[in-house]
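Hello,

Our lab assistant flagged a job as stuck in the queue for most of the afternoon. It eventually completed. Since we weren't sure the result was trustworthy after the delay, we are filing this so someone can double-check. Below is the sequence as submitted and the structure that was eventually returned. Let us know if re-running is recommended.
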Amino acid sequence: MRPVRLAACNLNQWALDFTGNLARIRASIEQARLQGASYRVGPELEIPGYGCEDHFFELDTVEHSWECLAELLRGDDTVGIVCDVGMPVLHRGVAYNCRVFLLDRKVLLIRPKTAMANDGNYREARWFSAWKRRRTLEDFSLPAAVSAVAGQATCPFGDGILQFDDARLAAETCEELFTPRAPHIDLALSGVEIFSNGSGSHHQLRKLDQRLDLIQGATAKAGGVYLYANQRGCDGGRLYYDGCACVAINGQLVAQGSQFGLADVEVVVACVDLDAVVSFRNAMASLREQASETVAPPAVRVPFALSSGAGGMQLCIPITPRLHAPEEEIAFGPACWLWDYLRRSGASGFLLPLSGGADSSSTAAIVGAMCQLVVQYAAQGSEEVAAEARRIGQYGPNEKIDDAQALANRIFVTAYMGSVNSSRETRDRSKQLASEVGSYHLALNIDSVCEALVSMFQGLTGRRPQFRVDSGTPAENLALQNIQARIRMVTAFLLAQLTPWVRGRTGFLLVLGSANVDECLRGYLTKYDCSSADINPIGGISKQDLRRFLRWGARALGYPELARVEGAAPTAELEPIRDGTPPQTDEADMGMSYDELSVFGRLRMISRCGPVSMLRQCMQLWGGLNSPSVIAAKVKHFFKFYAINRHKATVLTPSYHAENYSPDDNRFDHRPFLYNVFWPWQFKRIDELVARAEAPPPESAQHSGVSSSGTGSFGAGAGQPVSAGAGAGAGRPVGAGEGAAAAKGMGSAVQARCTCTKPASRSRASTRGTRPSRLCTCMEICGRGDGRHCAHPPRNLVPEPLQPRLRAAAPAAHDGQRCRDGVGVASVHCAERVAVREVAIRLWKNELKILKSGSIAITRPLAPESSDAVRAKLPMFAPTSTTMSPGLRRGLSHPPRPACPALAAHKSAGSVRTPLPPDEKMAALSLEAQRYGKLNAREMMMSKLHHNRKWFDSGEYFLTREGKMLQDLLPGGPAAESLPPRLSKDAPYVVAPPRPVFVGGAPKASASSQVSDY
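-- returned structure --
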């Protein structure tokens, strides 16, 4: 055996803080030495700090880095332990990002980085050059200060390895792990057993698993030991470096540090056997053959044994990687970033305008999570964290730091800035949440200030602006809203400066913004409103992720009010409410839902789509749910307002970076801020594509019966295969009433056997009469006739809890198909007089996770004007009467029965169901659906997806005949006596108003969203 003990570090370095950085490096070396390590690797550019940016152009930065290195050599830090540190080095007039190896007060090797990180947030090629002379070593003249201490004038510089008495060691730096031709492969074939990587990798939601896969994969094919060190913390910018130092051997993780934390120094040590690497490689015949022809890299001989002193040590065993859920990442990543920013800025706390909405409540919860972490670290004996908390919170010498709410009351101020347009609900939510978090809460009214400004304007011009509901123009309406928003910004900064003085404390407060990444991308914010702040912890997080975080935080953080916040409809409350006018909502103002906006943002940034390519992608993604013209209108709508409001990105508050579609103009998203908002060439191409997609099929296609609806939902003919989204045809038994529906014209949706050459794919065996056992996979060619094919085989997309009930209700239910656009539609033709029931399920983005399940229940008694009841509770577009299958449209055209007053009352109340609390494993609410008796009702099932703790709900209740509206359709929830006995013990649920879904064509944005809200 050759046991060696190796150490990797998480260090919270700070750009240009040479004194603090050197102290943290020394502390990590000492901790590694105390744990018996013979080798220690630190983060990238750890001496000056990775985030120096253009300070790397300054020779002072390089000079001070050498001075710090000389201090390491002057002391005993490098005695008996190999230290691998990161710093900038000038060699022959060129700046390189380097690893410097030290041992016993000597410089062993300077190894420059060979691949620069130069995309996204990284600009390394701006400051450094990559070393291009692979496998070449040169002499480097050491600075006088280092030479005097080390007693050597030169050292090797270049792409080489260290040859110890008992092992070979080579280094990579950050980006080199991610490159296609990573150095560790050739080095492994050359016999190198140990690889180290000093990194400066920032946190991004759902990124850690990719990094760990690369680290384990680095040694899975060719064997070896891989050490990964990283920065952890805020080093002075928008990024949070998320640590997670780790050690892997032969593709298995054996040690892993924490991803988030408040400690400045964390050392991860692992004891591994280098003979296990040799055994692993020798057992692979292909590796032996390739290694036998590999030329060895240049090596620097070091008379030192890494395994000395490691005898008798316990070898580390493989562990399972520890990954946080996205909700946990949202809680702890921004919380740690806020703590670093707070303690290093010299401020005495935060001030947050708390409106009671989802965004500001998420920010408040993150600050609460920060306070919980601080108290936790103080209780665990972290003297540094306790000292910082005592200083910032201005605790007395004998006061204990043992209560997160008490700490929040000292360092966190929340302010509800209400107006005549604000509701009691938001006021109560903000007050209750502030109480749960523990903040010092203020409630004030800004009407007097707003009225003073309006009166000043009236005195100046003789005109008084009016809101839209009072017959004002869009310009008047928008100006009156923006006055309120900007007054709140001015008030927030006033309170931030003077509240500590009022409370008898010293210092100032940092103002927190709370605009999410989707709103920043769309420009749905007022320039210089409350989104203008000192920092914004949620500016890189999407609305969907924030809503999931709110549900999680209600349980995990102990703030139950977050659940009520999540269930409320997003609204700015900037317009007055008059009788007969609907309340203002964010999605109606934007002209799109947050789910649609998130898709547009990812396509815009991550997939790099312009208007035309985005239309193509959206037609693939949503083609089965809406017509090409409706999708095109939504794409145009997005790009129009993206262009109108792009100028706001130039003044966005510095935000925590968490998503790859951040619109941050200053660092991440470099695009113009003055556009031709009409996009004449691009929109013309979009119109051409839509016209082509909606053109009638050729005559041959019409003769064959191919549907031209362009929706991807179509019927099946007698004896013909049933494709995804198709209804049942005459080839199976038809119940009473259903044959009449088919006879009245559903045959126009009936198609002949598909003639495409795409091979049919297998489906599960059928026991439903004449249903075929193989289905055609060309859903798109059947639906659009444009020759494009679906690339994926059929699969059942109906959630398992719903399948038995669907089969019971309609024996002819068909499996859906999953096409490459991620949408599946299963269509069911029920017997008797129910025309069509469709269940649609969308797979979430590119992660292939079911997000929600929506259902449509159309019965003949519903009148055409009641088609808004068709709205599926889907995260995307709901089908409309113009994009449904022909049979479904005809079902809507039957003469209506008298409308049910209770149903009309329910629709006007706008109540829909939201998921049950996640602590319930399964809950089902079923009303006895008596066929044409007193009641014919839909059924709702709530179920938890097994692995990711997400919930979906399906369906609404529709009364089709007589009888009063059940209590379960009203906001109070069901009364126990109104349910069947077997269901009376079911858990309660909450009711919330629905989010707007655009039905029947192009989005109809409110007048206020038609003007740039400067």
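-- support follow-up --
The delay was a queue issue, not a problem with the job. The result is valid. The first strand starts at residue 3 and ends at 11. Residues 703-1014 have pLDDT under 50 and may be disordered.
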